[in-house]
Design brief:
233 residues, alpha+beta, five-stranded antiparallel sheet, three-stranded antiparallel sheet, elongated, transmembrane, membrane
Amino acid sequence: MKLKHLDSNLRIVFAKLTRTGLVVAAVLVALPVVGIDLTVLSVFGGAVGIGLGFGLQKIASNFVSGFIILLDHSIRIGDRLMVDNRVGYVTKMTSRYVVLKGADGTEALIPNDALISNTVINQSYSDRNMWTSLPVQVAYGTDLDLALSLLKQASDHPRVLKNPGANAFVTLFADSGINLELGFWVADPENGFMGLKSDINLAIWRLFNQHNIEIPFPQREVRIVGDKPAQQG
């Protein structure tokens, strides 16, 4: 594990293979020393092996799947994964499971077999940068060009990448206003998004107030068709 010039996944593979080989060698050496004939155990071991094969099928599947994951480099320590609607970072990889730590600090133990047989979204497989967006609504009658320009200006944050830069879009003409969206790339998603989005939302709020851009509240216009006017006495 101290061979820093080797890939981290390969170091884990070699460590596991070495440990397994040493255990098997120790057992094979120890049995004759205590007077147990290995040939006598071969028949008994075959029967036991069949029973264990059925009983430990899932464990064996996870064990083999763990080596496949390590060798094909599909998942690495530090990767951001989405597994069954759970998002987290890989903090540990064992022969049976992968530890996925969420933003709330909880840790999920994902069996290696599940990572092989199911669809896993690796959000940092080839690029650790991550795209995220913020929705905002403005009132009808707003200067949309100005609003889009202010959204880009609000994205001026140390954690937001300058290249590729942020962009703003008109997404929908909704009931109460016009929906806009600010999208940007983040280089350090492992530090979370709540604080970043809060800072940018505050910047949007301040810029919109400075330029008198209204963020509308839900409203409805009710018209009564065929209503007779009140008669004056």
